[in-house]
Structures
1.
Amino acid sequence: MKISLSRIFQFFFLALFLFLFVTTDYRGKDEISVALNSFFRADALVVTSYLLSAKTFTLLLLPGLLVLFFSLILGRFFCGWICPLGTVIDLVTKRIKKGRPLAFLKGRIKYYLLFTILFAALFNMNLSGLLDPMAILVRFLTFSLYPLIGFLAREGWVGLYRILGDSRDYLDPGYSFLKTYLLPFRATFYPLAFLSLVFFAAVLVLERYERRNWCRNLCPLGTLLGLLGRFSLFRRLPARLCADCGDCRTLCPTSFDEEVLQKPDCILCLDCQRKCTFQRVRFRPSLKTGKEPLFSPGRRVFVTGVVSGLFASRIFTVVSSERATRLLRPPGVEDEEEFLQRCVRCGECMKVCLKNALYPASLQAGLYGLYSPVLHPRLGYCEYNCSLCGQVCPTGAIPRLPLEVKKKAVIGLAIFDKNQCLPYAKKMNCMVCEEHCPIPDKAIRFESVEEVDYSGKRITLKRPYVVDKLCIGCGICEYVCPLEEKAGIEVFKKTKKRR
Amino acid sequence: MNRRDFLKLSGLFISMHQLLPKSLWAKETPVVAVAEGQDYGAITRSAVNALGGMGRFVKAGDTVAVKPNMGWDRRPEQAATTHPAVVRAIVEECLRAGAKRVKVFDNPCNDMRRSYENSGIPAALKDLKNVDVRYMEEERYKKVNLKGTFLKEWELYSDALTADVFINVPIAKHHSLTTLTLGLKNMMGIMGGDRGFIHRQIEDALADVNSVVKSHLVVIDATRILTAHGPTGGSLRDVKIVNKVIASTDIVAADACATGLFGLKPQEVPITVTAYKRGLGEMNLDKVKIIKA
């Protein structure tokens, strides 16, 4: 069987995607040269909603604009040639038995969805990441699949140690190789792993009803590209199904719901051309738009989009009490609102985070903040000399800061709880937090006092305190606090006072 | 005297000998070798040679554990970790003495990848054969019955326990809680579990560990020392270039000798005092033979 050019491209980009996914990690260098964010930078939905919500432009997203531009000329090539989720769907769809198409997905639903997202973005609420196809895939990989693979490999390796003991060392070169180039460094489990799996699985389950069901009936990125693709200069001839054959109806993965090829849905896989028994099908550049009736979203969709976008942008805002206190964002993020307008929820920062300090928010940041990264110092801390999250963020929501600037970026402020902290509460020396504090001049210092402890012994007690203007809230103090229950020192968000 | 009497008498004599405290028989004066110079590899070698050379400790076919300080994500010039040239010289000497395998490891407080990488130690040992510089793995810790005064039992790293020779290679630096961190404190790196817990009685905890896992050789890297804001440091203002390496088989004597570099007396470092009281070595420098190597 001949493999089509589009298939080759699909495999190439999927392989590239997976390669970049694995390399988005610390590899012994302070800088990551290429990372997964390239895919998001070329994501037309991401760039469009970023422009609408942040209302500014960043050069990071130039590739996305180019994709928009080329879709205007070529059509929805992105879906059939590049999109890794589309490729994954193509790979599994043959093994899934098809039933009847779901009627309620037909028609305008995808336009309502897209316009709701876009108008919500215009009303300052960027929800695009939730349903972006690549974000769905990356989140599934980052939160669900990759940790599971890491866990299994790790447990297997530990199990071998139980059986073989030190002679396991003979196998070490092999495992080291896997560990260096393929496996996650740590097996971390993420909240929302299940939800991420559900999102991804739902896309595959949709394949029970028809091919590329997600792509043709729901995907907001695909819909957006389709809106432009309808103006593309490439036209399929003949536009209709031929009276004597009609094979295209089954050959075509997306666009022959009707007698006429639905240009906004055509992903240019060119299967119809390649497999045409009569060699009739041609894709030709042409300035004529053709007279074939095409489904148009129309005014109603537009108006509904405005209304539901406004509605969504308000209803998703949940101001929680945690927002002001424990909602710690990655280093360099200064304004919560602005951050959420830019964050794609792709999960790359969480994947790359050295100490697994970043976790996806479930509801701490409101429903709107779902999947946005939050730092949990009890689980991991921000490594002083590391600036990887800012390097992999595709939209600059986490700013890419030079290391020396990042080291001064304030995440929060550490505060002692003297009812917990050992030297205060139990008159015992401890100082683990002070020891770990990475600030060269120490943001945690101590005073030595002569004390009589609770057993009546005279002791020199070292009592720690925080130097507020040096503390950056990296959280290592809270992370290493040896108290098993609540930590004796905790990092709180530093909020700017509103006037 | 017949044969039976002879056997009885000699048996008695041997058992008497066993009963007498050995220290009365022949008390060895601990030796500390101090080498000075700018070639850190060379001074490490001369310090070890002054003690009789690596061949005194490492026999052909031995597995050697070398425990430097790679505890923090800092670069060598920041003086929070052992200098790679010192570690390399020791590893090379071990190999030359016929070591089958040399294992170099530490349990860092910062991210282990960054700590290993930026210490410069893995890179310095990269071209040497039969040398492992691996991250410490959870499953290799063994619960050890320490029967100590503070720690009854604790998880220690099996590579340190099973090695034929254990070489302790700390850097000399300031430490806020324990005043200084030297050889005795460097042993924290073989401890697993919640290490923060032992801070509440750290002198006893470290004496407990050091009385079970003995360092056959202690080589203190004082090529540059961290004089303040330890153990992490980070500012070159706190770093003092000393160009010295101190080696001894007596861990307390080595620590006591290095204390002087900070303008302190051994009595001012509680870990040293506790270890001395527990019989782990000599801290009175007038009872120590210090040789310039």
2.
Amino acid sequence: MLQMNDRGIRYIDEYRDKVLIRKLVGLIRDSAHSGYTFMEVCGGHTAAIHRFGIPSLLPPGIKLISGPGCPVCVTGQTIIDKAVAYSRKQGFIIATFGDLMRVPGSLSALEKEKAAGADVRVVFSGLEALEIAKANPGRNIIFPGIGFETTAPGTAVTVKKANDAGLRNFFLLCSHKVMPPAMDSIINDGVNLDGFICPGHVAAITGSSVFEFIPGKYGLGCVIAGFEPVDLLQSVYMLVKQVNERSQSVEIQYTRAVTKKGNLLAKQLMKEVFEPCDSYWRGFGIIPLSGLRLRKEFECFDAEKVFPVKTAREVENQSCLCGEILRGLKTPSDCPLFSGVCNPLNPVGACMVSEEGTCNTHYKYAQ
Amino acid sequence: MNEIITLNHGSGYRLTHELIRDVFAKTFGMEGPLTDSAILGEQGYLLAFTTDAYVIDPLFFPGGDIGKLAVCGTVNDLAVSGAVPQNISASFIIEEGFPIDDLRKIVLSMAAEAIKAGVKIVTGDTKVVGRGKCDKLFITTSGTGLVAGEFAHISTAKNVKTGDRLIINGPVGNHAVAVLGARHEIEFRSQVTSDCAPLNSMISSVLAGCKSIHFMRDLTRGGLAVVLNELASMTGSNIVINEESVPVDDAVRGLCEILGFDPLYLANEGKVLIVAGGEEYEEVLDIMRKSPEGRDSEVIGEITAKKDGKVVLNALTGGKRILGVPSGLQLPRIC
């Protein structure tokens, strides 16, 4: 259990130090000679950039655009529709990350199903879902597994524990994805980019080496960044320098969490439990080998295999620009639906749903 | 799909406001700004009248219980309207099977808070419903208090002007975190206790000592950010808040960092925003700091201009952003 003493947590102020921030802003201003466009891939970065008012600190020539790294945003409607279908079945409990509660499926959302009487519970990790399964032996617990390399190892541990405990009422609705193929797909779609602020928590698991194809194959800069203002500004500065000096490579700014090799144990666990598969990304379509599915020996935990449900085909609102926004080709204000038809209470596209979605953060922190 | 009530309708954020406006205020023909108390009466004296329903899980939490909450909440709604709280009614909806010992504890704490706040609980009602028809115990309190004519403007914010300073009486977010911890939905342990307290004594010393109190509002559901936005939209004024001046206890800040919450949006039960004239705010601050409920009072910002009713936050980084009203409850984030 998390214990919090009266002193709170350490090392927050150090990374929000005003003097350091001012110094970094000065360095960026002095070295930014022309226009630069960088994409922050991770939704956590998007949220932090807005929360700390980073855009207001940068010179006008530096543009930050948001990529596909909000797991909730890129999860297809089908997964929500399936979770909704399970929630309506007698004797089923949905144990889900909070973000998924409000994501609209084609007909409903888990939050609405809960209000209508379904047993939907918010959990912080798969292990909590496992506890629910143990406490409710007569009922089936569905855990929607979403997220990238950051959350997939946790799900892998959960499935292994369920297996070790011989649990037969815990099921994974698996929609985990991996990041590098999506970044490859963005670049191939021809976006005007000078570099990536690479996802720090994904890289803590994968290691920095998985991004090396980006400078190698495409000549674009990469800096793996932390989530505090000093981290973000230092990363922007490092990217500006890479572009100026034409020294595009993968650099780690977030050295306190990220190494070249990553978290070997977590990677091993993922490999044991999952295998790569093609996966549907909202706004991108199918990206080859960008998803994770349970290996054969763990299939008895696969909700879709054990309880097949029929859902409608993936249909998206044609006016919704989520796809282009996730690719960095458009910004929320380009979208005819933004802030009118599509708002956080009635999200059309998934970018509006999650707190970290590009449209949601733009709506919330409207400049 | 036919619309149904979701928990989001009770969040204190946008959906709550839409519900109040569209379902209640319109139907009941309530006009003008919706304030914490209705100010009634004609010539001579004014009566403030307020009501509030209390549902909380769990009923007992570090720093208080539903009874203390019900008395303090109503006392504070009256006090921030410029009224001297006087009489309170209390109605109880009790679920079959509820332990009478727990009920006694709750009622005792109501009595204790009433004495502390100098109010009388003068009337009430009790209903018992079948098991499962309510969640253990719901309490509704209503209250009345007298408002001196010179303070009638406070709840309407109509005297708020450019240059006024915004003061709060201490750290925000403690109540929400204490309750969240006691609920055990998210497993964490901390020493954080609810700030639940009657504020009428501090407020009456402020009103007695200062002439330029232009607005007051308690920072309950929705937290500081929602109250600031209400003030901005009531007055059309822009507000600038300095993030580093807003007191937040280290434990609350740490938990917010980990859980992905923003303390500015968390509920409090013993905090008030006071808007004071630019020429007098230092005296207001002094008076507040002399009261036990206001020891940690801070000036957090300023009314900058009559413009488009936006709340701008000077972030700790030196950057700026708009502090908006979230559409729904803050949900724990995935990663």
